[in-house]
Design brief:
The chain has helices at residues 9-20, 42-52, 78-87, 103-108, 123-132, 152-159, 198-205, 266-283, 300-311, and strands spanning 4-6, 25-27, 34-38, 61-63, 92-97, 114-118, 136-137, 165-168, 179-182, 189-192, 210-211, 235-236, 246-250, 258-259, 288-291. The protein starts with a strand and ends with a helix. Helix content is 30%, strand content 17%. It is α/β, with parallel strands linked by helices. The chain binds threonylcarbamoyladenylate and magnesium ion.
Length: 313
């Protein structure tokens, strides 16, 4: 695997140089692996869309490593700063009003008047961003609509040598993508459930947060597309038990060919989700897939969101 490099100091330094030179680096974050480029290099940003085969109307998240970088091209009011200080570094992405203009940022934001920013909670991502000296835009490092990568090998399996360097930082501990929170209006709205729970955001803000499932034809976050995160096999969800000829992914006391978390721990289940979907896909053969019911609270919201889209035909 010539493009996979262990995330050691010298390789991170090399990767930072690749970013500065306009290349693409896949980096581990606490959620999933991201396919990163310098946001101020419009050609590099364009290559991300090409390599992922992602439509350019689907905007990218800017990743920063320090709080000072937050207002670089967005407006941040007191509520935004408060959320950032409470939840960063961590799996919370905020949709913010943009200011200024730059070709790379415009492309990354698909020309929208908003930009999404997050500060990943991963030492490798943080070191890479700091050494690159610029915000790194990064979508999940997989082909558009397929299952997100939680290991360096997953990245290689999907994108191969089109990525200049894949930094291998092991498995991503959270395992589902960040929560996308739109804070451009009076009421905060979750556009994509993710690693930061709705409950934690509501507790902190002291008010209800809306959860948008989006309009399927006009998604404001294309993660809202009905079919997304899709394995190759058909997937039946909320399956109390397997039917004949089904590969069963269990949860808690519902055991199966695999079990997302025998102890019923939702965090463990989220961390295993994408790797298990891939493993199930690779081993189910003639069988189709079925998954046990997952409770609809905490990070369970994010798990159910992903498998709902993965199961849509
Ligand atoms: O955890 C994550 O968020 C990972 C890691 C790598 O940081 N990134 C990730 O990026 O999941 P991506 O591109 O696969 O998903 C980002 C989602 C997309 O559905 C995109 O449409 C939405 O964020 N998005 C980006 N900018 C937006 C904006 N200005 N308004 C609404 N949605 C936006
Ligand atoms: Mg993605």
């Amino acid at each position: 695997m010539k493009s996979i490099y262990e995330a050691k100091e010298d390789n991170i330094a090399k990767a930072a140089q690749v970013i500065k030179d306009g290349g693409l680096v896949a980096m581990p974050t606490e959620t999933v692996y991201g396919l990163g480029a310098n946001v101020y290099d419009a050609q590099a940003v364009a290559r991300i869309f090409e390599v992922k085969r992602r439509p350019t109307f689907d905007p990218l998240i800017s990743h920063i490593a320090d709080f000072d970088a937050l207002p670089e091209y967005v407006e941040a009011d007191q509520r935004v700063w408060a959320l950032a200080r409470r939840f960063w570094p961590g799996p919370l992405t905020m949709v913010l009003k943009r200011r200024g203009s730059h070709a790379g940022v415009d492309l990354a934001c698909s020309g929208l008047p908003t930009a999404t920013v997050r500060m990943p909670d991963h030492p490798v991502a943080a070191a890479l961003i700091r050494q690159s000296g610029v915000p790194i835009v990064a979508p999940s490092a997989n082909l558009f609509k397929s299952v997100s990568p939680t290991t360096a090998q997953h990245v290689y399996d999907g994108l191969g040598d089109q990525v200049d360097m894949i930094l291998d930082g092991g498995s991503c501990p959270v395992g589902v993508e960040s929560t996308i929170l739109d804070v451009t209006g009076m009421t905060a709205v979750i556009l994509r459930a993710g690693g930061t729970t709705r409950e934690d955001i509501e507790d902190f803000l002291g008010e209800k947060v809306l959860l948008s499932h989006g309009e399927p034809d006009r998604p404001s976050a294309p993660g809202q597309l009905l079919r997304h995160y899709a394995p190759g096999h058909r997937l039946r969800i909320n399956a109390e038990k397997p039917q004949e000829n089904e590969f069963y992914i269990g949860f808690g006391t519902r055991d199966g060919d695999l079990n997302l978390s025998p102890s019923g721990d939702l965090r463990e289940a989220a961390a295993n989700l994408f790797a298990f979907l891939r493993q199930a896909d690779a081993t189910a053969g003639e069988r189709t897939l079925a998954m046990a019911p997952i409770p609809e609270y905490g990070i369970g919201l994010a798990i159910n969101d992903r498998i709902r889209r993965a199961s849509h035909d």
